[in-house]
Amino acid sequence: MSGAIRLGNRRRTPIKPSRVMFNVIGIVIALVWIFPVYWMVNSSLLPNVVLQEQTPTFVPFGGSWDNFTAVFAGGTFFPALGMSVVIALVVVVCCLFFAFLAALAISRFRFRGRKGFVLAILFIQMLPAEGLFIAQYKLMASVNLLNTVLGVSILYIAAVVPFTIWMLRGFVAGIPAELEEAAMVDGLSRTKAFLRITFPLLAPGLVASGVYAFLQAWNEFTVALVVLQDNADQTLPLWLRGFIQASASRATDWGQVMAASTLVALPVIIFFLFVQGRMTSGLVSGAVKG
Amino acid sequence: MSALTATPRRRRRILTPYFLLIPAVGILVLAMGYPLVWQLITSTQQFGLAQQFGQPAPFVWFANYVQLATDPYMWTVIGRSIAFCFVTAAVTMVLGVLIALLMGVVNRVVRIIIQISLLLAWAMPVVAAMTVWNWLFNWRIGVVNWLLSSVGLPFQDHNWLQEPLSFFAIAMIIVVWMSVPFVAFSIYAGLTQVSGEVLEAAQMDGASASQRFWNIIVPIIRPVLGIVLLLQVIWDLRVFTQIKLLQDAGSIASETNLLGTYIYQLGTGSSNFGLASAVSVFVLILTVAISAFYVRSLLKEDES
Q1: C-alpha to C-alpha distance for B181 and B286, rounded to whole angstroms
Q2: Taking the domains of chain A in order of start, what are their residue ranges?
Q3: Which of A144, A230, B25, B89 could form an S-S bond across to B232 if both were Cys, CB 3.0 to 4.6 Å?
Q4: How far, in Å, CA of A226 to CA of B240, rounded?
Q5: Three-state SS for B1?
Q6: Interior CA angle at A239 toward A138 and B31, to 5°?
Q7: Is A222 in the B-facing interface, judged by CB distances under 8 Å?
Q8: pLDDT (0 to 100) of residue A161
Q9: Separation of alpha carbons B43 and B36, rounded Å
């Protein structure tokens, strides 16, 4: 195992057998991790007759988009998509607005209760949906918001806003207040200075936080399961779940299920690649910076 | 800045942060605070089907908690949840650290390939991932059974979800698959702080690979390790989605319940909101207790 751990060493070293072995192991690990994703796409392109064969088909030669067309024609995809999109948009817009104001408060002002508020959002952010969803269900039932976009959105905003505040706080704090003050000395009002100077610098932070909020709302399952019990009002994750449930009792058209899963995963994968770096550092930044 | 000398303008400045907090606090009080209080109260009440139809709920104080504490099934569920959480978190950490170390020694192309595949796995929405894994482990035509039986193992038509133990093994594989990318990336970022010269010097002095790992690398990346492990433990306690969706695919819920699915069953299944609330309160206390360390480390960052 000599030379096993040699990080950041860019010096040219003779190729050792161990190095080749590590590269091979690395490739194997990459294949194992990507396999489920690949298998989803592969199966989504194959017709059901092929999927039902005892021997799996590993490459979708002669595949088609038929499964996707069938999903679109099924009639339940678009209502679920519409519901998911509306909820995600409401959550993103409200979350960004609320979180932005709060981030401004905690990073630009020193006030009584600031520490308590920061502590509270950090703890709230950690609360699992499972620990509250029964009570949230009763709350929504009592105000007649079960099975509504508004009901789910309210619960999602509350679940996502704490971490969004935390993310944005870092961005706001990163923009020196002196910039604003300089603009104010030059005669701009506080609001104008903020809008003209600070806000444009904040754009990347708002985008990152917005994508985070979008991903949370788009993927959420637990709360949706309790609050949206009517089959007519489903978000995409609940709609996908219907396929799993059906697979327990009768023969499933796995090609269609995988096409459906691909459709749900696609926007997420695109957005995720966008913010991945931010999310990692947001979660562990204190520790990574040392 | 005393209140006496405060000019109106200054007073407005003092009040500004509070105005800015109103929307966020408002929605948190409404959607988190109110349910939390309701839950605390309900956990001390007898709240079942009759109360669903409008009867007043009588206070039973700690009867729900006593009932849970004396119920062997509750202890089974708690034991299962904790065991699942620790085993999954441990496996995730070990694999994550190994992959992070591996990323440091492979060549650039291989590293990029590893990173892309980890990223894709990480980006998969949990429900989509669950449908895929259900398909992979499908007992009749799933690719896993085909692979195992084609190397001669007796897994043809093997139903993985029927036996609780193999059910949890599958659940663990899925959760590990989802969580390793985050661990690997975070640790890899931490590893970049370890200087190559120090490691080389240690190697020349005769330190073995494991000595270099435990005595040089681990102490340097300890903060990252700690936080990542903590997050894993917290996240692996809340695996409702994964467990629920595996149960949906056909297994006996009572034998495979963890805390989350047990609450769901008590609440929406049998409308026993008193008991469900008591279990929820237990879960919340457990999470807050474990989270305290994490929150403390985040706060340190806030102060700096």
Answers
A1: 26
A2: 17-65, 75-252
A3: B89
A4: 12
A5: coil
A6: 25
A7: yes
A8: 96
A9: 11
| CB-CB neighbors (< 8 A) of A43 in chain B | 135
> What's the CA gap between A104 and A268, in Å, rounded?
29
- 8-state DSSP, A277: H
According to DSSP, the residues that pair with B59 across neighbouring strands are B45
Domain A75-252 in CATH 1.10.3720.10: yes
Q: Which amino acid is at A120?
A: A
At A46 the pLDDT is 93
Q: Which two tokens stand for residue B190?
A: 């931490």
Neighbours of A1 (CB within 10 A): 11
Burial B242-252 (b: 16+ CB within 10 A, else e): bbbbbbbbbbe
Residue pair A80/A234 in contact (Cβ under 8 Å)? The answer is yes
CA pair distance B123, B55, nearest whole angstrom: 47
Nearest to B141 by CA among A27, A258, A149: A258
Splitting chain A (290 residues) into consecutive groups of 10 residues, what average pLDDT does each group show?
46 69 96 96 92 86 89 90 96 96 91 92 90 92 93 96 91 83 84 82 87 92 93 91 78 88 92 71 50
Can you count the helices (H) and strands (E) in chain A? 13, 0
Q: Give the Cα separation of B148 and B158 in Å (integer).
A: 10
Cα dihedral angle (B196, B197, B198, B199), rounded to 10 degrees? 50
ipTM comes to 0.89
Query: With an 8 Å Cβ cutoff, are B250 and A27 in contact?
Result: no
CA distance A30 to B181: 11
Length of chain A equals 290
Q: Do the beta carbons of residue A51 and residue A259 sit within 8 Å?
A: no
CA distance A158 to A150: 12
What's the rounded Cα separation, in Å, for the pair A173 and A170?
5
Q: What is the DSSP letter of B59?
A: B
Which SS3 state, helix, strand or coil, does residue B45 take? strand
Radius of gyration of chain B (CA): 25
Structure pTM?
Answer: 0.89
Would the CB atoms of A260 and B131 count as touching at under 8 Å? Answer: yes
A221 and B126 in contact (C-beta within 8 Å)?
yes
Q: Which residues, in sequence order, are bridge partners of residue B45?
A: B59
Q: What is the pLDDT of residues B125-146, one digit of tens each?
A: 999 999 999 999 988 889 999 9
CATH number attached to the domain at B63-303: 1.10.3720.10
pLDDT at B44 over 80: yes
DSSP-assigned letter for residue B4:
T
Compute φ and ψ for B106, nearest 5 degrees.
-85, 170
| Phi, psi torsion values for B29, nearest 5 degrees | -65, -45
On chain B, the residues whose CB falls within 8 A of the CB of A4 are 101, 105, 209
- Tell me which chain B residue has its CA closest to the CA of residue A1: B209
Q: Do B124 and A26 touch (CB under 8 A)?
A: no
